[in-house]
Amino acid sequence: MVAVKQGQSAPDFKLKDTYGKEHSLKDYKGKKIILYFYPKDNTTGCTIEACEFRDGYKLFEDKGAVILGVSMDDEKSHKKFADKHNLPFILLADVNGEVCGKYGVYGEKSFMGKKYMGIYRTTFLIDEKRKILRIFENVRPAGHAKEILNLL
Q1: Hey, what CATH topology would domain 15-151 get?
Q2: Is residue 109 predicted with pLDDT exceeding 90?
Q3: Cα separations in angstroms, 11 against 25, 77, 104, 116
Q4: For an engineered disulfide with 18, which of 31, 47, 78, 111 has Cβ 3.0 to 4.6 Å away?
Q5: 3-state DSSP call for residue 21?
Q6: Torsion angle of alpha carbons 111, 55, 93, 100, nearest 10°?
């Protein structure tokens, strides 16, 4: 399902954060990037995942890594989510799904027999030169942040 492969250069993009500021991968040259795609703000799994990244935030910083969360929610939704859970990292709004498409994390999903389109919970660990070191597909939110920290 993922359009990019481990070892390839991570596709660049420009997306806005909760305050309307544009971010791209180029902005984080020289840092490791945890680029995580999640389905929806303020849902159970997404909240667990975000709060675990929040709780380990200082440890990620100490290891020279930045965390970028991406969903198709808009900036206003991201701001409410970040404020409600005191998220110290950047959430990016991919409202048209262009970046999700570049990374191959958007497609048909199924829940309780109903099919719908959505984001596959996926994380990309990217090195200081924008090379994809590892791709985590079908992420289980609980324990995921610790799994990445252990790799760093």
Answers
A1: Glutaredoxin (3.40.30)
A2: no
A3: 8, 25, 11, 26
A4: 78
A5: coil
A6: -50
Query: What pLDDT score was predicted for residue 116?
Result: 81
Yes or no: say if 40 and 61 are a contact pair by the CB < 8 Å rule: no
| Structural domain boundaries in the chain | 15-151
9 token code pair: 């250069």
pLDDT of 88 above 70? yes
| 3 — pLDDT class (breaks 50, 70, 90) | confident
Catalytic residue list contains 51: no
For residue 28, the SS3 value is helix
CB atoms within 10 A of CB 31: 15
DSSP bridge partners of 119: 106
10, 25, 34, 46: which is the annotated catalytic residue? Answer: 46
Give me the torsion for CA of 39, 122, 88, 90, rounded to 10°. -80
Q: Which two tokens stand for residue 24?
A: 């791209």
- Ranges of H-type helices in 10-124: 44-55, 57-62, 75-85, 98-103
Sign of the dihedral defined by the CA atoms of residues 34, 39, 143, 111, in that order: negative
Please answer whether residues 99 and 13 qualify as being in contact, where contact means their C-beta atoms are separated by less than 8 angstroms: yes
